[in-house]
Specification:
The chain is mostly beta strands and about 325 residues long. It contains two helices and 23 strands. It has helices spanning about 1-20, 230-235, and strands at about 30-40, 40-50, 60-70, 70-75, 80-85, 90-100, 105, 110-115, 125-135, 145-155, 165-170, 175-180, 180-185, 190-195, 210-215, 225-230, 240-245, 250-255, 265-275, 280-285, 290-295, 300-310, 325-330.
Length: about 325
C-alpha cells in the first residue's frame, strides 16, 4: 500500500513538471503588435499570441514596457492595453510573452512598435501651460448641483511666427471640448482659454488632458499635450458665511463648508486670528467648522478661514484663498 502511494505521488510530480516550462520549451514573442491613437493623449496597444507557439498547459501572460515618452512597465493577461500619455514627444513600446512557475520565469524576445513625433518646427509649440479648475453652483440642473470651470494660460513659443494662432482642447473621460473663449496678446494670438462650464467631475480621479495645436502661414506649429491631476489644479472655494461672537474674553467662530461637490466631512480648515492692536497672529488647523479661542477685551481682531479638501476624500491639494476678514473687539484698527 505504501509502495502504491509512492508511485502515485511520483506520477503526479512528473505530470506537474511536464506542465512547467523547461529548457526545451521556447516562448515566442507576440505578433501583430500595433499602437493606435484613439483620443487626445490616449493610445490603444494590441497584439496577438504567436500562432507558432508550442501548445502546453501553461498560462501565457505578457509584459508591456513603455519606452517613451516616459518609462513604464507592467504585466497583463490581456492582449490589449489602453494608455493615457502625452504624445507630442512620440510614443514607443514593446511587449513580450512570459510564463511564470513557482520557481522560475520564462520570457520571450520583444515585439516593438512606435508612433513618430508629430511634425512641426522647433520652438513653435506653446510653453508654460498652466490650468486651474473651480467649482460653482449649477442653477440649471437639479441632478448636477455643481459645475466645474476650467481656465488655462500659456506663453507663445519663442520661435513661433507672428501670425501663429493656437487652439486648445481638453478631454476628460470620453468627452472632448474645444475652447470658445480666448484671451489674446498684443499680436492677437490666443494665450489663455476659459471654459465657464465643463464635463469635468471635480470628485473624479481621471486625468485631465489638455492639447494645444496651432497654425501659421510661415511654419508648421508643433502640438503640445499635458496631463493634469485634478487635485493638483483645483482652486478650492473659501468657506462661506463666516461669523464670530464674543462673550467676555471668549471668542466663538463658525462657518460653512465651501461651495463644492465634496460633503462636509471632506474638508480641513485653517483659522487665522489677527490681533490688530498687538500685531499678534494666531493660526489654528481644524477638521470641524467651529473654533473657540480666548481673547482680551481691549483689542480688535480680524478673523479669516481657508479650506482644503482632506486626504480622507482625495489626494492632498491646494488651500483655498482666505475668506474675507470679519472683525470683532473694541479698539480701532491701526
Amino acid at each position: 500500500m505504501v509502495l502504491e502511494l509512492l508511485i502515485l505521488l511520483g506520477a503526479a510530480v512528473t505530470l506537474q513538471a511536464d506542465l512547467l516550462p523547461d529548457k526545451k520549451f521556447v516562448l515566442l514573442p507576440p505578433v501583430n503588435f500595433t499602437i493606435k491613437v484613439t483620443d487626445l493623449a490616449q493610445v490603444f496597444l494590441r497584439w496577438e499570441p504567436n500562432p507558432d507557439q508550442e501548445q502546453r498547459e501553461v498560462n501565457l501572460e505578457y509584459r508591456v514596457k513603455i519606452n517613451a515618452p516616459e518609462e513604464d512597465d507592467y504585466e497583463t493577461r490581456s492582449t490589449q492595453s489602453k494608455c493615457v500619455t502625452i504624445l507630442h514627444k512620440g510614443f514607443s513600446a514593446k511587449v513580450q510573452t512570459i510564463v511564470r512557475s513557482e520557481h522560475s520565469l520564462l520570457t520571450s524576445s520583444w515585439a516593438s512598435a512606435e508612433l513618430q513625433v508629430p511634425p512641426g518646427s522647433p520652438g513653435t509649440s506653446i510653453v508654460n501651460l498652466s490650468c486651474t479648475t473651480n467649482t460653482v453652483p449649477n442653477n440649471h440642473a437639479n441632478l448636477q448641483p455643481y459645475q466645474v470651470s476650467l481656465q488655462c494660460t500659456w506663453l507663445v513659443g519663442k520661435d513661433a511666427p507672428e501670425d501663429t494662432q493656437y487652439f486648445l482642447y481638453y478631454r476628460y473621460g470620453s468627452r472632448t471640448e474645444e475652447c470658445q473663449v480666448y484671451s489674446k496678446d498684443a499680436l492677437k494670438r490666443n494665450v489663455a482659454c476659459w471654459f465657464p462650464r465643463t464635463f469635468i467631475n471635480s470628485k473624479g480621479h481621471e486625468w485631465l488632458v489638455v492639447h494645444v495645436n496651432g497654425s501659421s502661414k510661415r511654419a508648421m506649429i508643433k502640438p503640445f499635450d499635458q496631463l493634469f491631476a485634478l487635485h493638483a489644479i483645483d482652486r478650492v472655494n473659501p468657506p462661506m458665511n463666516l461669523t464670530a461672537e464674543t462673550e467676555g474674553n471668549r471668542l466663538s467662530i463658525q462657518w460653512e463648508k465651501p461651495v463644492s461637490a465634496f460633503p462636509i466631512h471632506c474638508f480641513d480648515y485653517e483659522v487665522k486670528i489677527n490681533n490688530t492692536r498687538k500685531s499678534y497672529l494666531q493660526t489654528e488647523k481644524m477638521t470641524t467648522n467651529a473654533f473657540v479661542s480666548i481673547i482680551d477685551d481691549i483689542s480688535k481682531y480680524s478673523i479669516q478661514v481657508r479650506a482644503a479638501v482632506s486626504s480622507v476624500c482625495r489626494e492632498a491639494g491646494l488651500w483655498s484663498e482666505w475668506s474675507q476678514p470679519i472683525y470683532v473687539g473694541h479698539s480701532k484698527i491701526e
